From TrEMBL:
It is an enzyme of class 3 (hydrolase). This is Adenine DNA glycosylase. PANTHER family: ADENINE DNA GLYCOSYLASE (PTHR42944). The keyword Iron-sulfur applies. Adenine glycosylase active on G-A mispairs. SUPFAM superfamilies: DNA-glycosylase, Nudix. One of its GO terms (cellular component) is mitochondrion.
Amino acid sequence: MKKPQTAVRSCRQNQASGHEGREKQVLSSSQVKPSTPDGTMPKFPEAPAGLARRQKEVVLRASVSPYHLFRDTAEVTVFRENLLSWYDREKRDLPWRRRAEGEMDPDRRAYAVWVSEVMLQQTQVATVIDYYTRWMQKWPTLQDLASASLEEVNQLWAGLGYYSRGRRLQEGAQKVVEELGGHVPHTAETLQKLLPGVGRYTAGAIASIAFGQATGVVDGNVVRVLCRVRAIGADSGSTFVSQQLWSLAQQLVDPARPGDFNQAAMELGATVCTPQHPRCSQCPVQSVCRAHQRVEREQLVASQSLPGSPDVEECAPSAGQCQLCAPPTEPWDQTLGVANFPRKASRRPPREECSATCVLEQPRALGGARILLVQRPKSGLLAGLWEFPSVTAEPSGQCQREALLRELQSWVGPLPATHLQHFGQVVHTFSHIKLTYQVYGLALEGQIPVTTTPPGARWLTREEFHTAAVSTAMKKVFRVYEGQRPGTCKGSKRSQVSAPSTQRKPSPGQQVLDSFFRPHHPTDVSSLNSMAQ
């Protein structure tokens, strides 16, 4: 039985007629290098390694079907106009957009964009809004940030994750102020070259939004949009596919409104072209979306109950498997629809590590209970942040107590080993590490309060702890300690030591029983003084 014709051209059809047409493409995002008259690869005046790399690129580009490209100016124009019209109507009201749009000074505008783009890396918009607002209130200019201390930066950044971002942002501000005369570089190339922590995406975002440079950007949202619009099923994390996506982004960016265009593409991916359950009916570029066309064709074929699979989008050029299509081992999933694109890259699981950490507390310290924090090294994971004394430990737990006790004694001197208690564990996953904390606690009940500490350590009240530059993992550790230690209701986030004075007091008889069965923890300084009399 003959298969019906449809309006959707297959990649194989494109391939059959595309070799001559490929040379005539308008605005093609990749151009195939010509071969020599005898059909061999041209010889490049390069070192052997460079020659091999260029020859491989030629082969890869030759095996890309024009189906995945924008072949003429009409498609590009439709994409730009529809996307920008939608953005003008639907864009979210966000504080960094308001600040950038209303700022006349280019350096202050670039700084506002820079801060937002760094914070938004790997972090949701809803989370960033509050952090961004507080940051800009505290350091409204590059000069303000450059003069801040790293401790202040870490303290404000605490809880946002990926803490090196805040440090590199401040280093960049210091370089602009001290070496660049207070002026932010205006192009993506110079931004990426001169500023620490500014990669290709961040540089393109700053240059296009703050300075109007017609340069495309590719973040996770844009990857998803482009992979669906051009039906790119190959691993988007591979070097070759990433290069193609950047070429497409550069081809599409509107030279008249580059900043708005880039924000619109990201907005589309964040609000409409989402990873799961995309809202295709509300998509402004649906008319040029290859993924949507594929869904319509599959539905048509299924409704007509045709036997076999249609000869469509296999995209196997004469040079071999198309480098932008999904591999044959990953067939189309009818239940996913357009979410078949992009292909989910296989991620290496985070390595597992174990640490023993201890909340060392002075319940009877002058002025209220205090806990010991020590500062992490200036480089590496969670650089410069504060944490409870910790040691690397084997998952089996052997010798944990001894090693942890030695670590504690290195900070405060001799301690009673019998008072060290194990309270539970906390599992926290960083970007590449799954870290299990074995949580211990030790209260210095009957000892003389420790009033001095070596450099890199400090005693903090509970209120000071919650506003200090500590990681989310340490806050989890502290919640386990608070919920398990004597004198605290299990699961409570606050102990009786820091409970408000309005709490209902137990009867005198109950106080006697409490003091008999467990150590008594005074609720305030006056209680401490009355006990001492």
